[in-house]
C-alpha cells in the first residue's frame, strides 16, 4: 500500500488530502466532521484507510476548509458540500480507473453527507448521524441522560439477566441512579428536531443507497434512532460500540461494513 499527500482547490482555498492507493474499482472517501483532522481521533481514520487499501480499495481523506492543514474558514457541516465535491473530484482524477465512489462520515460528517447528498459520490455510509439543533444540545447537557427509548431498552435488557436481578435484591444497585433512570425512561419521546426531520427527508429523497451505522452505546446514535423512523432505511447496529468505534470488536465491525458496501 502506497500513501501519498496532495493538494486540491475548493472555492479559492487550498485543501490538503491523503490517498492510500489500491487498484479496486470502488473507492472510499472519508469525510471528517467538526474540527477533526483527516487522520481522525487517535489516527483512527488513517488506520481504517490503511486496512481498506490493503483489502484492495483506494481511500482518500482530506481536511475541510478551516481544519488541519487546509486554508479557509470552517463554517460547519451544513456548508461542507463544496468541500466534499472538491475532494470527490480530486479523488476521481487521481484514480481514473475507479468506477464507484463511496463516502463515509461519522457524527456531523454523516449529517453533512446526507444534507449535501454526497456530491459526486455513488453511495453513502452515514455513521451515528448528528440530529441535534442548538437548543437540543443545551437541553441534552441539562438532562445528562440518553433518550428515553434507549433507557427503556437498557433496563429491559437488564431485567432479562438473572445476575442483574440478584444484584438488585442484594442491594448492589445505586437507588438514586435507578430512580433517575426510571424517571428518564418514563419520559415521553421529544418531537424530532428540525435537523432530524431534514435528515429523514433527504434520505428518503436521495437516489443513492445510504447505509446507516449506529453504535449502540453512543448517545448521538441513540438520539438518531429515537427521532428518525429507521425502519425504512438500511440501518446496521453494533452492540457495545462507542461513538468512534474504538473497541476492538467495533473496529472490526466497522471495517466489515465498509468493505461490504465497497464490494457491491
TrEMBL record:
Where in this chain does the record put each AB hydrolase-1 domain? Answer: 32-253
Provide an example Pfam family for this protein.
Abhydrolase_6
Name the domain of life: Bacteria
Give the NCBIfam families listed for this entry: hydr1_PEP (TIGR03100)
- Which named protein is this? AB hydrolase-1 domain-containing protein
Q: Which organism is the protein's source?
A: Aurantiacibacter luteus
